[in-house]
Amino acid sequence: MQMWKTSLMAGAVAAALVGWGPKGPSTAAGVEDKVYAVTPPAMTVKAGIVTAELTEMKVTERVEKGSDKIDTPAKLSAKLKLVNSSPDQTVRLISGKMVYIDMQGKPIKVEEARTEPVIRFTSVSSSQLDPGQDASQSIDVDFPAAALKSKTLKEIRLDLVYAPTAYRQETAKVAVSIGAGGTEPIAAVTK
Known about the structure:
Elements: E1 4-10, E2 20-28, E3 31-37, E4 43-47, E5 50-64, E6 70-84, E7 89-102, E8 107-108, E9 118-119, H1 124-127, E10 128-129, E11 134-142, E12 153-166
Antiparallel strand pairs: 1-12, 2-3, 3-5, 4-5, 5-6, 6-11, 7-8, 7-9, 7-10, 7-12
């Protein structure tokens, strides 16, 4: 079985975080959500036999009112839909990762105390796709603070690791006959 690692470039995210978006509602006394607009907020990219659609993309961080002290670091949230466009291969999704690319084409690292932006496909329905099938899930991954600065983020890349396998449908025939050699019943059942 050959394993494929496919990179899907969410290209036009270059202008992703150019400024503050609208502020979200207060979540607690003294704390509010600051939402950064991701432009475009949705995109579809294809690599190999997998098509990925990211929608409702936004970056949110929680800050204390007045002081702008960070209460909860920035997270990228979106809905991810993956489609197996192969006519004859099943795809077993292994993992995914968001990679944030700066203006020089280098990855922007997430701070050490935070979690790498890994996407896990945990349910059976979202980890294996037969030809033509799709699976959707919400993602909520850490976003690097450095990428929030104006003109820092060029693009967001979605790295997927999946294993394609041949999809085959077979027919088996079993020779049978009714009765011991004729059409007589073996036993009569009376009700």
